Amino acid sequence: MPNLASSKKQLRTDARRTARNKSVRSLCKTKITQAEKLVSAGKADEARKAVLSASRSLDKAASRGNLHPNNATRRKARLVKKLNKIKS
Q1: Domain 5-87 grouped into CATH 3.30.70.600
Q2: How does DSSP assign the chain, residue by residue?
Q3: Which of 74, 22, 80 is nearest to 53 (CA)?
Q4: How many angstroms separate the Cα of 17 from the Cα of each of 20, 43, 56, 61, 80?
Q5: What is the per-residue pLDDT for 1?
Q6: Using 50, 70 and 90 to split pLDDT, how confident is the model at 73?
Q7: Which of 59, 33, 61 is nearest to 47 (CA)?
Q8: What percent of the chain has pLDDT over 70?
Q9: What are the tens digits of pLDDT across the range 37-62?
Q10: Phi/psi of residue 82, each to 5°?
Q11: By C-alpha distance, which of 42, 50, 43 is closest to 80?
Q12: What per-residue confidence (pLDDT) applies to 88?
């Protein structure tokens, strides 16, 4: 536990930020999982919409600083790659 008052305050703000970041990351993971399920089921039209939704949420998370931009880009690339496999 921190001893200084400023360290205690920082601990509280870190807890708030962590909770906010966690909800955004969780939403991204949920959307990615939904998209992957549709891709594996072979539903191309629904999967394309789900992939677009997931990539949009990843972009938002990256722009806000919840995710590293390279992490978001890598996840989007993998999703699109899976989607393109079922289309061809």
Answers
A1: no
A2: ---SHHHHHHHHHHHHHHHHHHHHHHHHHHHHHHHHHHHHHT-HHHHHHHHHHHHHHHHHHHHHTSS-HHHHHHHHHHHHHHHHHHH-
A3: 80
A4: 5, 37, 21, 13, 30
A5: 82
A6: very high
A7: 33
A8: 99
A9: 999 998 999 999 999 999 999 999 99
A10: -65, -40
A11: 50
A12: 65
Domain ranges of the chain: 5-87
Q: What mean pLDDT, rounded, does the chain reach?
A: 94
Q: Encode 38-72: b = buried (16+ Cβ within 10 Å), e = exposed.
A: bbeeeeeeebbebbeebbebbbebbeeebbeeeeb
pLDDT for the residue 2: 85
Report the residue count for the chain. Answer: 88
